[in-house]
Amino acid sequence: MQRRHLLAGSAALALFGRQAVAQSIRPDFLPVEVRIRDDVPPNELHVVPDTFMLYWTMPGGRAMRYMVGIGRPGLYESGQFYVGAKKEWPSWTPTREMIERDPDSYKQFEEGMPGGPDNPLGARALYLFEPGRGDTFLRIHGTNAPGTIGTAVSNGCARLVNDQMIELYNRVPLDSRVILHPKTLL
Length: 186
Prior knowledge:
The chain has about 190 residues and is of the alpha/beta class. The protein is about 20% helix and about 35% strand. It contains five helices and eleven strands; from the N terminus they run ααββββββααββββαβ. The chain has helices at about 5-15, 20, 95-100, 105, 160-170; strands spanning about 30-35, 45-50, 55-60, 60-65, 70, 80-90, 125-130, 135-145, 150-155, 160, 175-180. Strands 1-4-3-2-11-6-7-8-10 form a nine-stranded mixed β-sheet, sandwiched between helices. Strands 5-9 form a two-stranded parallel sheet. The two termini are about 15 Å apart. About 35% of the residues are buried.
């Protein structure tokens, strides 16, 4: 076992109990129902970046676990948020910071891109807000690039393949609590 898997498994163990470690080795990217600690409240989203996992918590010490792609180094933002908006086939406009970081990729979209299959936000998006700050420009969204799942390549958002994002979108109501856990591995 590699050291990074041991450390990531330890983080999942601390949050979700023994079952999370046993399932941190992923044979594929399909969602699976897992046991979690009984004291974790239901109806919350938890992103554990070191294991590329997102959990939708449910009553009775259970959660749906999804594999995700996350923000690349320096762009992942941990913290507590809430779902402030939900959109189907959302439009997308890169932030000023994205255009400054990579004008060759993003300048062409500075006026925005309509929703649709080629849009980077995919089929559905959950918009993360903070009290007093409002929209953080962080999203949990779909993607039509399944090869990015299990990697740190985004501009800060968590992404799921579109069909799984549609399923998650239908489960998660507005105002749901979202915790983007800190990265513990370099």
